[in-house]
Known about the structure:
This is Zinc/iron-chelating domain-containing protein. Residues 1-27 are annotated as: Disordered. Helix content is 46%, strand content 2%. The chain is an all-alpha fold. The structure holds iron/sulfur cluster.
Amino acid sequence: MRGRDWDDEDEDEAAPSPSGNAHEEERALKELRTVYQRADTAYAPFSCPASGECCQLATTRRQPWLWWPEWLLLARRHPLPPPRADGGCPYLDAAGRRCTVYADRPFGCRTFFCDRIQGPARQPAETVNALLVRLERLSERLLPSLKGPRPLLDWHAEAFARKGKTRP
Ligand code: SF4
């Protein structure tokens, strides 16, 4: 079992449960992991230089968009980090090179394709699209009011503000 860390007490504040149904959420997170595994399998023939450049969100002006279960997984399993001064993803390590939530990184991070990636000429677009549909349905089941994915920095900023309000 994971030891207590500085942010454990804030996990529910980072991801308050809209359904109030812990069992349903656990089921959704299990299915989410299956979706992630399928995406990883689809991208297994490709290799990434792992420079961390695509995680410099302010520089690239791009960021992953997450459905609710994706944010829920991050918020439940990892301490909520502060924003980075350089505008990079808050889940980067201190050096700004490595993802600290790699095993739980969002779908968009798993399937992002930069021009330095190496492998087959054709991307697994059909698989990615089918998995995206599955992800959307999964999110709709858990949080019907959410009509689309949201940028990672929006989820993070909202959770961070909520955390600030709950601290003395
Ligand atoms: S979650 Fe990880 S892989 Fe995705 S942008 Fe952030 S640091 Fe990069």
